[in-house]
Amino acid sequence: MIDSVNMYNFLSHGETNIELEEGVNVFIGNNGTGKSSVIDAITYALFGMHTRESDKDLVRRGSSSAMASVTIDVGGNKYRVERRLDSTGRLISAILREVQPRDALIVAGERRQMGESVSERVSKILGLDYERLRVAAIIQQGELDSLLRYRPAEFKELIDSIIGIERLDEAYKNMKDAIELFRERLRNECMGKYDDRNYQQLVADIESTNARLEETKRRASEAGAGAEAARKELEKLKGELERLVPMREARMKADEIKRSLEGYVAKRLKEMSQRAEELERKARTARRYIALASGLEDAKAKLEATENEAEKARESIEALAAEASEYRNLSERLKSIEHELNSYIKAKEDLERTILEYETEVEKLRAIPPPQVHGDVEDELQRLRKMKDEALEQRGSLRRKIDDYELIAESGRCPTCGSDAKAINIYEKINTTRLQLSKLEDEIKAYDDKIKRLEAVVAEVHKHEETIKRLELLEKSIADYRAKVEQAGRRIEELKTEMAEKSKRAEQIKDAPNKLNRAREEFARIAQNIKELQKNVEEMKFAWSWLKDNAITSEDDIKKLEAEMSGLLEAVKHASSPRSVNDLAIDEYAQALIKQLAEQEERSKGYSEEEYNRVQSALDKAKETLDRFETSRTHYETEAAELEAELKSLNEARAKVEEAARYINELERIREDVFNRDGAVATSFRSWAIREISLYASEHIRRFGIGITEVKLEESRRSASIRCFTGNGEVPVESLSGGEKVAVALALRFGMARLMGTGNIDFIVLDEPTVYLDEERKKTLVSIISGFSAGQGPIRQMIIITHDREIFEEASVDAIFKFEKVNGVTRVLKE
User: Fold this and answer.
1) What gap in Å lies between CA 751 and CA 342, rounded to an integer?
2) Which of 1, 42, 48 is nearest to 22 (CA)?
3) Most C-beta atoms within 10 A of its C-beta, which of 11, 468, 527, 573?
4) Each residue of 685-712: b (16+ CB within 10 Å) or e?
């Protein structure tokens, strides 16, 4: 049942808290007082759904946010659902909390893609979604007969939801999941892949593994025999190789010594050749340097004289460079002065023209007369605008009132309560209101005329104020510009004086750049002569130093160098064309190497490299053959052990699968018979529910006294239909009048209420259930509703929304809530 409904700035409600009672709760009040808003608050809080055009319409005008909260009791557990939205209708928050027996947040928000949805969780708790709840439990105004418009398939689904068949669907799914979990555990225990559905594959795998094991054992035996034969051949080849190895080592040592001897001799011959070449170059250089060193003193004297000449040229260049730099600076400054002088002359002329223009504009502005204004015009304009706005708002109200009166006059009945409007002199009210509207239109037009006149005056005042500001700005600008003109005149005179002085000095030194260029060319020629003389002196100094370092002072010293060179060349020539190894004995080290070479050649007599290679190749092949057979035998023995272990696991899995299959078959049978919505349990339960609804609906329809004696529900495989009977036979539902359809729909709902009272939905909300009923049937409805008071009816709670207060004055109800509007805001009082 619904414990409470709380609203804050929701539709016409400012702040409303309704604590509902168990049994019958009646909401009474005139149309438009906010009774039906409670239904929108309930459905919006639970599901985010309502009957208004947009979410923005839910927010009370002028409010920045709104809230709707509902507390419900389902099977002894209490939940609070709350939604908040801003002034644009955007959802700020949605919260579902359990408040009893524990206080805990269940879900927040409407993020279905993340598995977080308040509305979906509420649907699971109640057992009905928004659309089915509107048909089964919350019936809004004009929707009482919506139950009769349900298609047969939809009607059967509604009955299933009411009696909880959908919970069997969930159990049916959960049991499938349980069976799949059992199979998953079976697969985990049976090598990760076998269960009752692939038992034949398991048997085939056992047979295949047995065959593979026998074949693997055979191959392992063959590999062992091959390895033994390869091992005997390997031992034989090792003996032959042991005989050849010492001879091969002696041959390799002899080759190494011979290479060392040849390398040593070649290196020594190269060194001797290089020494001979060095002696030849030294003798040639010595003869050239003795001739060069003889003129050193004369070269030093000539260099000193040339350096003195260069120093005088450098002093002349420095003096000319100073005058040339001064001339360049003067030229640049004269150009700058000329440019600045022209800028000041132009600026002065521009300022004088601007002053003349401003003085002319000042004279024109002073000639404009000020406007004649009396009193505070802007305050009066503001007051008139406010009075006009109030009149416009009053005009809108009068127009809406006329529309309402004309609608009543056209239909002859109140559009909300259906009462007769003839007792009201409606045309007199329309004429009176139209006269009021016409008078108000004249007032609005008079306000418009006054406002236009005052707006023109205000515009003139603002324009004159702008003129005064412009005049003050121009006078200040004129004074500033005149000061700038005087300043520019003084600067022009200063620049002219400076230009005359600098022009005179520039004329005096204008030839300095040309003289400087000629002086620099002469200095460059002298500097080149100095470089050549310095080079000659340095070469002569180097020649004396080299002769001294090499101890050469005369021609005799040079001849000694040439004699040593000839001896070296002769020795190199003899060793370069040896007739035998002994011809390489050029020193003691070479003689020792020749002796070692003879000893190693004696030890290696009879050695054949071809025979050694043949034995080594055969030995390598024998090793490869042995390794191949050993690897194959190890591989097949390992594979056989793995296959034996696999075969053991397969046989164990077979025993487990055979045992588990018996349990799975039994579980599948229970799932189909007990939890399937078309199984024996669900079918029996649904048939009982349909009989119960038919029975109780027939009891209630007879109390309405409309001639219908029986309301019967009939079930087929996928649908459920409604049939009505009178004493003369069956009456098609489509042929019933509006009042008869309402009576049948109410009878069915009261019949369904007996079943709902045993489920999660143990409340019914009826909005204006008496609209299409006459007085007699209204009393019958009240009598039936009275039977739902606390502790007596089939469900815990019923909420009736009506403007027919009088029919419930003597009824047995548990709580009456009076709705009324005060200053446009709904107020609710519990009587």
Assistant:
1) 110
2) 1
3) 11
4) bbeebbebbbebbbebbeebebebebbb
pLDDT for 787 equals: 67
Q: pLDDT tens-digit profile of 189-208?
A: 888 888 888 889 988 988 99
Give me the long-range contacts of 572-581 (CB less than 8 A, separation at least 24): 572/269, 572/272, 572/273, 572/276, 575/265, 575/269, 576/269, 581/261
Residues paired with residue 797 on neighbouring β-strands, in sequence order: 23, 763
Say if residue 596's pLDDT is above 50: yes
Which residues are 827's β-sheet partners? 820
What is the model's pTM? Answer: 0.43
**Contact residues for 520 (Cβ-Cβ < 8 A; gap 6+):** 317
Contacts of 33 (CB under 8 A, 6+ apart): 12, 819, 820, 821, 826
Cα-based distances in Å from 455 to 382, 459, 483: 10, 6, 43
Give the tokens for residue 711.
């309301």
Contact (Cβ atoms closer than 8 angstroms) between residue 125 and residue 71: no
Helix and strand numbers (H, E) in the chain are 16, 17
Q: Which residues pair with 712 in a beta bridge?
A: 723
Q: Is the backbone peptide bond immediately before 101 cis, with ω within 30 degrees of 0? A: yes
What is the pairing mode between strands 23-28 and 797-802? parallel
Tell me: pLDDT of 132 over 90: no
Distance from C-alpha of 813 to C-alpha of 831, rounded to nearest angstrom: 11
Token pair for residue 392?
């416009």
Strand order in the sheet with 91-100: 104-108, 91-100, 77-86, 65-74, 2-10, 13-19, 825-830, 815-822, 23-28, 797-802, 763-767, 138-139
pLDDT band at 354 (very low <50, low <70, confident <90, very high): confident
Residues for the chain: how many in total? 831
Mean of the pLDDT values across residues 11-17? 93
Question: What whole-number distance in Å separates Cα of residue 823 and Cα of residue 816?
Answer: 23
- Tokens encoding 818: 């009076």
- Residue for token pair 């010595």: 286
pLDDT digits (tens, 9 = 90+) for 779-815: 777 777 776 665 566 678 888 898 877 777 777 788 8
φ, ψ of residue 127 to 5 degrees: the values are 85, 0
Supply the DSSP string of 525-555, one letter for each residue: HHHHHHHHHHHHHHHHHHHHHHHHHTT--SH
Nearest in space to 124 (alpha carbons), one of 84, 88, 169, 184? 169
User: What pLDDT does residue 81 have?
Assistant: 95
Q: How far apart are CA 366 and CA 472, in angstroms?
A: 11
